Amino acid sequence: MTEDIKEIMLTEAKIKEKVVELGSRISKDYEGKVPLLISILKGSVVFMADLMREITVHCDIDFMSVSSYGKGRKTSGVVRILKDLDTDITGRDVIVVEDILDSGMTLSYLLELLKARGAGSIRLCTLLDKPDRRVADVKVDYCGFVIPDEFVVGYGLDYADRYRNLPYIGVLKPEVYSN
Ligand code: IMP
Ligand code: MG
């Protein structure tokens, strides 16, 4: 698995430090509130698991699965709900937890949907942001790292559903996805 990685972009230590920082910002901002953290499956599970343990206020969690990517690297533009929330979000302070914001198409659709369902407030927390490839206008409230336009895997992020279990974030060798 590791032989497919060209270089490590973000080490475990660097990610950990950032997650602690984001957790503490969220804890301060949501003092006296009970936010609902919504993890977008599957890419954000690792980030979610670490982030929630850095949050010191009461919070609820839920999961949603949408598809905009097939097995490849480019967005299909089609957003389908594969798994919906269990929670009624009416009036809730929602924090959407994402692994990476790329074109923004998935999230702009999702944020509109959550708004339409009557959430009290909605904020977005993404570990990675690739602004170079943005198509849809999406506002990020909590961002871990702004990264260049390179395809990365690990720490939850996949290529063809693999590499999610790498503890760091690395750049995939182009030959892995070109053949
Ligand atoms: P968007 O709709 O283009 O913003 O797509 C975001 C989704 O695309 C993420 O949740 C990821 O699943 C996937 N994605 C975008 N860039 C990468 C990458 O560099 N590595 C792995 N997955 C990516
Ligand atoms: Mg993916």
- Measured as a percent range, the helix fraction is 10-25%
What is the string of helix and strand elements?
EHEHEEEHEEEEH
Low-pLDDT sequence parts = none
Number of strands: 9
Q: How many H/I helices? A: 4
Radius of gyration computed on alpha carbons: 16 Å
* CATH structural architecture: 3-Layer(aba) Sandwich
Bound molecules: inosinic acid, magnesium ion
Question: How are the strands of the largest sheet arranged?
Answer: 4-3-2-5-6-7
Most strands sheet: 6 strands, mixed
Query: Average pLDDT across residues?
Result: 94
Which class do the helix and strand fractions yield? alpha/beta
Topology:
Blueprint: E1 5-10, H1 12-29, E2 36-41, H2 45-52, E3 60-69, E4 75-83, E5 93-101, H3 105-116, E6 121-129, E7 142-146, E8 152-153, E9 169-172, H4 174-178
Parallel strand pairs: 2-3, 2-5, 5-6, 6-7
Antiparallel strand pairs: 1-9, 3-4, 8-9
Helix pairs in contact: 1-2
How would you describe this structure to a colleague?
By secondary structure, this protein is of the alpha/beta class. The protein has one domain: 3-Layer(aba) Sandwich (Rossmann fold). 24% of the residues lie in helices and 34% in strands. It starts with a strand and ends with a helix. Bound molecules: inosinic acid and magnesium ion. Inosinic acid binds next to strand 3, strand 5, helix 3 and strand 8.
